[in-house]
Amino acid sequence: MAPVLDYSKDIILFDGVCNFCNSYVNYVIAHDKANKFVFAPLQSHTATRMAARFQTDFKELNSVVVIHGNEVYTHSAAVIHIVKNLSTVWLPLAYLAWLVPPFIRNKLYTAFADKRYVLFGQSESCMVPTAQVKHKFLN
């Protein structure tokens, strides 16, 4: 059984029916060597509880969401936060991305997010984690 909520780790809320988002979550899991992240689809009960806690409709944001303690990162800031905490070759780019003004980063992020279903498709239901990674997903 997955943990109910693990506030010692950053929570990544993602679009569970988006094929690109599911691939990105698998990428993060593979490169999260320090075990810093846990996950929940935006369509889950966990996301609903987090939305109530932060008084934000995460589904309306059209964004990946990272909850780091009492901070909420969305759009490009969420992606940069994730990449900065992974063991990947993209780390230097994450630091460079902070130099780009947020309104530019977020405009690019939103343009991609708006086309993700067209480019990568979507599933009829949320991804089901494998037994090997199920412990990284919240109820």
Can you walk me through this structure?
Helices cover 42% and strands 13% of the residues. With 139 residues, the chain is of the alpha+beta class. It has one domain (10-136). Strands 2-1-3-4 form a four-stranded mixed sheet, with helices on both faces. The mean pLDDT is 89.
Helical amount: 40-55%
Q: Order of strands across the biggest sheet?
A: 2-1-3-4
The total strand number stands at 4
Strand content: 5-15%
Structural class: alpha+beta
Number of domains: 1
Q: For the record, give the distance between the C-alpha atoms at the N and C termini, rounded to a whole number.
A: 8 Å
**Sheet with the most strands, sense and barrel status:** 4 strands, mixed
Mean pLDDT across all amino acids: 89
Rg of Cα set: 14 Å
- Supply the number of helical segments: 5
Global shape = globular
Taking pLDDT < 50 over at least 5 consecutive residues as the criterion, the unreliable ranges are: none
What descriptors fit this protein?
139 residues, alpha+beta, four-stranded mixed sheet, 5 helices, globular, DCC family thiol-disulfide oxidoreductase YuxK, DCC_oxidoreductase
Brief write-up:
This protein is of the alpha+beta class. It has 5 helices and 4 strands; from the N terminus they run βαβαββααα. It comes from Mucilaginibacter lappiensis.
